[in-house]
Design a protein that fits this description.
The complex is a heterodimer of chains A (about 350) and B (about 550).
Chain A: H1 3-6, E1 7-10, E2 13-16, E3 21-23, E4 31-33, E5 46-52, H2 53-63, E6 68-74, E7 80-82, E8 85-91, E9 99-105, E10 108-112, E11 134-139, H3 151-164, E12 170-173, H4 179-189, E13 196-198, H5 203-211, E14 219-221, E15 234-237, E16 254-258, H6 265-270, E17 275-277, H7 285-294, E18 299-305, H8 307-316, E19 320-323, H9 331-337
Parallel strand pairs in A: 3-4, 4-5, 5-6, 10-11, 11-18, 12-15, 12-16, 13-14, 13-15, 16-17, 18-19
Antiparallel strand pairs in A: 1-2, 2-3, 7-8, 8-9, 9-10
Helix pairs in contact in A: 3-4
Chain B: H1 2-13, H2 17-30, H3 35-43, H4 54-62, H5 67-77, H6 80-87, H7 102-111, H8 117-127, H9 130-140, H10 150-160, H11 165-171, H12 180-186, E1 208-209, H13 212-215, E2 223-229, E3 232-240, E4 246-252, H14 263-271, E5 277-287, E6 290-291, H15 294-297, H16 308-313, E7 316-326, E8 329-330, H17 336-348, E9 355-357, H18 366-374, E10 388-395, E11 409-413, E12 417-428, E13 437-448, E14 451-460, H19 466-478, E15 480-484, E16 487-490, E17 499-504, E18 506-509, E19 517-520, E20 523-528, H20 539-543
Parallel strand pairs in B: 1-11, 7-9
Antiparallel strand pairs in B: 2-10, 3-4, 3-5, 5-6, 5-7, 7-8, 10-11, 12-13, 12-16, 12-17, 13-14, 15-16, 17-20, 18-19
The chains are: A alpha/beta (about 350), B alpha+beta (about 550).
Bound molecules: zinc ion (ZN) (2 copies).
Chain lengths: ~350, ~550
């Protein structure tokens, strides 16, 4: 038994023949197991969808109740038989409800980790290390220049800037699902008690987090004219909004952006960012390497991101490593780093 | 070091001058001596470290990381200091928690021998975080590039002390890092530092670019006009030191003492035996009485050594247009029309031939001035017209105010040249543009063996907005026909191809370029998404623009 006997690469995505299902397929498929709610992993139109309760709720919020014909709820750690394969979902620490999927067949264990991180995040269940024979890892930040500092340190820099520029609104660009709510929670942890202002586009998903019991403090929706009066306040908005007409309603705002890409100065400046905050929901280089070693796998497949460097690193350590070059993933972070055209 | 690193970090991202200034002032308020003084020295370009070269930094990182991973990372980031700062491995033992002051680092660096530098640098890099490492590497390799000019930094000191901007500029030349006396003065703890400099710098007066609409409110009778020379703005100062010896200095417009780069000009000034004077003028190369174009003067700029041959081949000259000080008298509170006869009288007494008067341009209406600007050769400039880039307008009643006051002086440049060219190659930028195709090589059509082909005529790096860069980058990626290293060749033929409107300042004959021409300051004026590549310009029409 080997990894490629269990999972194969198809145009729709990773396919498991033993269970006749796809994982995070990019095309409508008869049966899909979904790791998490980001749009590049969770698409609508599949025949049957199996995912955690939170991920199913996020998909329903985004696509409407008819996003699939049949839903099956997965509980972290619970083993379920699908065809020949035994499948279980485990926390990935990426966003609310995110999961790694463990497939077991004839004693061989393979883990599809989806997107994951190891850093501090009060809004979701922390990553769980799974021993396995083969590990499939993302590589969004698969270069050794990507090392995310402690998110609390970055939030401290945001609050310092609010104190240094009490007359300027601080617009924090953050991806609507996951990053925005994590920022809210981290800012609260740092002791900021004022209301935090939210762009309309992230309201519903934030309400969903609240309904799931995540504490986020008081948030307010921005009404047009108020924008000019928000000096010294924190405003969270989608990254593209910081370059929109919408942002011009603020007087001389400080534009911040919470993303792992902010580690690279060129990226930050290209996006017109004045206060780059290196906060990511993806593993950094050190976490990617540590995680691969933690799983004690002999084989590692690298998907979306900078595959080459991680494959090189793994090969140097005697692992069988190969890049998958999957198409269609990672857009959530790619688009957000670019200036809105 | 951490406070300084944070300051550099914020400055590097802050586009607004006012906000940069606020950040610097906030730093001066909260940082201690001597750190803030060394920070000021770093921002004004007064710090150099002889032994710290990029090769040393490369060697340090090569000992610590996998070369393949380093190459991939450097290629991605595009900046050596930044790549090293980000990749530097966490030390095994946690470093000394004692925070390093910028002052201590600068003083140690100046004492450290070349052979000991790598070890010393490693200790610091181990102790600092990413931002600290980046700032340290930028500082020692002399590549800060944080968008802060010496002037901005000095003005921030003045503003910090609630003083007029020029005050700091004027005491500056007698001062040394870490500027304890300067900070003591601006904080009101001591008297103004004594400028012992017998030939001090005075902040020059600068002009705003004039727009068509500006003319509406202006009366030509209130103004004088001069040619705008395409040279280098300088200030020539002479004075007597405490021993009665004549001191002569040449300053750049930012107040940098450039005397050593132009020793022949300084000698000519000293030989003129002016008493204490401060002359504002343009440094030019003049051969046989003819002003040479900027490309000739350029041979004298940024030279490490100045040979006798260079001096003989590129004779320097100052064309003077203002007189700020004469025999200890400050002429700056006088009007232009009062200062001008003083300058004329001074130069009338001079017989040396290396300094002359920049003539006034006669005009009686904006139309006649526009005509002079369009063809200086017919408006008195004769063969010097090649070195003229427009006209200057100066109010007759304008007093001389250091800085760039709006209203008294205007510059009215000649229109740049424009051509439509076809994008041929794109290369990834460095530094802030490392992940974008941002260097563009473009060409025009020419006939070769009966068929038309594109020949490259130049390369442009700027002129476009961030949003346009994104579109250009995408276009390049979607139209690549081949790649070699960081360069992509794109679709460029009669039917497919992207037309770029290129603006440039001038054209020179060139044997180094296949096309035989070289552009000065080319930039992308517009992306002509609408224009078919077949309709782009031809080399023949470009050659017609060649000035002989
Ligand atoms: Zn994701
Ligand atoms: Zn992803």
């Amino acid at each position: 038994m080997a990894a490629h006997d269990i999972l194969t690469q198809t145009p729709a995505g990773l396919y498991c023949q033993a269970g006749d299902f796809y994982i995070d397929p990019v095309r409508a498929s008869p049966r899909a197991l979904i790791t998490h709610g980001h749009a590049d992993h969770a698409r609508s139109g599949h025949g049957a969808v199996m995912a955690t309760r939170e991920t199913l709720a996020i998909m329903e919020l985004r696509y409407g109740a008819d996003f699939t014909t049949t839903r099956q709820m997965a509980t972290y750690g619970e083993k379920v038989r699908i065809g020949e394969a035994q499948v279980s979902f485990h926390p990935a620490g990426h966003v609310l409800g995110s999961a790694q999927i463990l497939i077991e067949l004839a004693g061989y264990r393979i883990v599809v980790s989806g997107d994951y991180k190891r850093g501090h995040d009060p809004t979701c269940t922390p990553f769980e290390v799974l021993r396995c024979d083969a590990f499939i890892s993302e590589a969004t930040f698969g270069l050794p220049v990507f090392r995310h500092p402690d998110a609390r340190h970055e939030v401290g820099r945001l609050l310092d800037s609010c104190r240094a520029f009490p007359d300027r609104a601080h617009l924090v660009g953050a991806y609507s699902l996951g990053k925005a709510q994590r920022m809210l929670a981290l800012i609260r942890e740092a002791g900021w008690q004022r209301p935090i202002w939210l762009h309309g586009a992230m309201e519903k998903i934030t309400e969903l987090y609240r309904a799931e019991g995540v504490a986020l403090g008081e948030t307010r929706k921005i009404v047009g004219k108020e924008r000019a009066k928000l000096g010294g306040e924190i405003v969270i908005c989608p990254p593209s909004a910081t370059r929109d007409l919408w942002a011009r309603g603020f007087s001389d705002p400080v534009v911040a952006f919470a993303s792992g890409w902010m580690r690279i100065r060129a990226r930050a400046r290209q996006g017109g960012v004045q206060l780059p905050l290196v906060i990511s929901d993806h593993a950094d280089w050190d976490e990617l390497c540590a995680t691969i070693l933690d799983t004690r796998c002999q084989e590692v497949w690298i998907t979306h991101g900078a595959e080459d460097a991680l494959v090189h690193w793994a090969t140097q350590r005697g692992l069988h490593a190969r890049p998958l070059h999957l198409i269609g993933y990672g857009e959530e972070d790619d688009t957000e780093a670019e200036p809105a055209a | 070091m951490n406070r300084f690193a944070e300051l550099l970090d914020r400055l590097a991202y802050e586009p607004s001058r006012d906000n940069k200034s606020r950040l610097i002032i906030d730093y001066f308020r909260t940082a201690a001596d001597p750190d803030r003084g060394f920070a000021l020295a770093a921002m004004t370009g007064e710090l150099t470290f002889a032994h710290a070269k990029p090769a040393l930094v490369r060697a340090l990182i090569a000992e610590r990381v996998d070369p393949v991973l380093f190459a991939m990372s450097y290629d991605y980031v595009g900046d050596l200091s930044e790549t090293v700062a980000l990749m530097w491995p966490h030390p095994e033992t946690s470093p000394d928690a004692n925070p390093l002051g910028l002052g201590a680092i600068v003083e140690t660096l100046h004492k450290t021998r070349k052979i000991d530098l790598p070890a010393q640098l490693s200790i610091w890099l181990d102790a600092l975080d990413e931002t600290g490492r980046w700032a340290l590497l930028k500082l020692i390799t002399g590549a800060l590039r944080i968008g802060v000019s010496a002037r901005l930094a000095k003005n921030a000191v003045a503003e910090f002390g609630n003083m007029p901007a020029n005050e700091v500029e004027e005491v500056w030349h007698g001062l040394q890092p870490p500027y304890l006396d300067l900070f003591a003065w601006v904080e009101g703890r001591s008297d103004r530092p004594r400028t012992t400099d017998p030939a001090p710098f005075h902040t020059p007066m600068l002009a705003h670019a004039i727009d068509d609409v500006d003319f509406l409110g202006l009366d030509p009778r209130d103004f004088r006009a001069e040619w705008k020379w395409d040279g280098v703005r300088v200030q020539a100062v002479t004075g007597l030191d405490e021993h009665g010896q004549r001191v002569t200095r040449l300053y750049s417009r930012t107040g940098e003492d450039v005397s050593t780069a132009f020793p022949d000009m300084v000698d000519a000034l000293a030989g003129a035996e002016f008493d204490n004077v401060t002359i504002d003028g343009e440094l030019l190369v003049v051969r046989d009485g003819l002003v040479q174009p900027f490309s000739v003067l350029q041979q004298r700029l940024n030279r490490k050594t100045v040979s006798a041959k260079l001096i003989a081949e590129y004779p320097l000259h100052i064309r003077a247009y203002d007189l700020l000080m004469e025999n200890g008298e400050d002429l700056r509170p006088l009007s232009f029309d009062e200062r001008r006869p003083r300058l004329e009288a001074l130069l009338a007494r001079y017989r040396g031939g290396r300094i002359d008067l920049s003539p006034l341009v006669a005009f009686d209406s904006w139309q006649s001035l526009a005509a002079a600007r369009a063809s200086p050769e017919n408006a008195g400039a004769g063969l010097d017209a090649d070195a003229i880039e427009g006209v200057m307008l100066k109010r007759r009643d304008s007093i001389y105010i250091g800085g760039r006051p709006k209203g008294p002086w205007w510059k009215w440049k000649r229109d740049p040249f424009n051509i439509d060219a076809v994008l041929m190659y794109a290369q990834r930028g460095h530094g802030k543009r490392s992940s974008f195709y941002s260097d563009f090589t473009f060409g025009v059509w020419r006939e070769n063996d009966g068929t038309d082909e594109l020949v490259p005529v130049g390369k442009a790096y700027f002129g476009f907005t961030d949003a346009e860069l994104l579109l250009l980058d995408r276009w390049v990626r979607n139209h690549t026909v081949s790649r070699f290293g960081p360069v992509r060749e794109v679709n460029a033929n009669k039917d497919e191809g992207l037309v770029l409107e290129i603006a440039f300042e001038g054209l020179n004959q060139s044997t180094r370029h296949k096309s035989g021409v070289a552009m000065r300051f080319p930039r992308i004026a517009r992306i002509r998404w609408d224009k078919p590549a077949r309709d782009a310009d031809r080399l023949e029409s470009l050659r017609k623009l060649l000035r002989n």
